[in-house]
Amino acid sequence: MSEHHTHPTGERDQEAQETHKKTGEDLTQQDARQEDGAQVSTGNETAGVPEAAIPELVIISGMSGAGRSTAAKCLEDLGWFVVDNLPPALIPTMVELGARSQGNVARIAVVVDVRGRRFFDNLRESLAELDTRGVTRRIVFLESSDDALVRRFESVRRPHPLQGDGRIVDGIAAERQLLRELRGDADLVIDTSSLNVHELRAKMDAQFAGEEEPELRATVMSFGFKYGLPVDADLVVDMRFLPNPHWVPELRPFTGLNEEVSAYVFNQPGAKEFIDRYSELLQLIAAGYRREGKRYVTIAVGCTGGKHRSVATSEKLAARLASQGVETVVVHRDMGRE
């Protein structure tokens, strides 16, 4: 990932821009060290929560090796009470204990994964119980490609929790099948295939840092179709209907962040009209997401190489969303890969 920043309504830590190019293997090195046993850790106390208040709950799950421990550590640093590898059947009990803490445990994050083995089957029942109690809960799902997961497990020389006597890829396939339904129910899906620890923490900070929870948060991600679709995209926009600045010699070295390229793109017939019409459509979609309780949306904007048209359009769309009160993060996934 070559560019990651936040628009004015949602400025975050400068660490999101200091993306030292590490391999994604760092994510697993932290996960792998916590593969055995339930581990409990607490962040700073949260002040100002009324007595007997029901804590806010985040459930972190996803593929083994995709960075669950890194995501949990980030929430711990933000003051959340974090429980790793808690059997799903005990989640309602954990929330009840938090409610009795007289406001000292106002936000709880629980890591749930296949290490729970048979307990994982109880997750859906626990989620239904939480809903009946009126608990505010969100599910964060950490995703990653098979290739990235294999590299990470090989780098730490640990077996996949579900591979048994088979290969790592067999364990990954079994886990994907087991988690398929949970992934579909997730409020936020983060693809860590090309992220290092700093970039994953920046994404978590962008979603959970801050004292007030916005109604809706959006990630606008530019990408190149030749590098594949982002797996965590909710909406996909194809900008290949516009002329490609790549074929203009004086624009080829630049990116969509340069004014020359942006001006070229939006001087093309239909470009400005597209931004206006699609922004109106996003307003309609955003209203529906809010009614359904969906707090996060990822809009993937693509062109051939992810360098010119998609980058310029992502910046325009993000600015338009920010002006409408949507906290917006911009990510340029493939810029700089050519």
Q: Report strand %.
A: 15-25%
End-to-end distance: 12 Å
* Average predicted local confidence, pLDDT: 81
Runs in which pLDDT lies below 50 for 5 or more consecutive residues are 8-26, 28-52
- Strand element count: 11
Q: What is the general shape?
A: globular
Model description:
This protein has helices at 25-32, 68-77, 91-99, 123-132, 146-156, 168-185, 197-208, 259-266, 271-291, 309-323; strands at residues 3-6, 39-42, 56-62, 81-84, 107-111, 137-143, 188-191, 217-224, 235-238, 296-303, 327-332. It has 338 residues and is an alpha/beta fold. The strands form two sheets. A six-stranded mixed beta sheet has the order 2-4-5-3-6-7, with helices on both faces. Strand 4, helix 3 (91-99) and strand 5 form a beta-alpha-beta unit. Helix 1 crosses helix 5.
Question: Which helices and strands, and how do they pair?
Answer:
Layout: E1 3-6, H1 25-32, E2 39-42, E3 56-62, H2 68-77, E4 81-84, H3 91-99, E5 107-111, H4 123-132, E6 137-143, H5 146-156, H6 168-185, E7 188-191, H7 197-208, E8 217-224, E9 235-238, H8 259-266, H9 271-291, E10 296-303, H10 309-323, E11 327-332
Parallel strand pairs: 3-5, 3-6, 4-5, 6-7, 8-10, 8-11, 9-10
Antiparallel strand pairs: 1-11, 2-4
Helix pairs in contact: 1-5, 2-7, 9-10
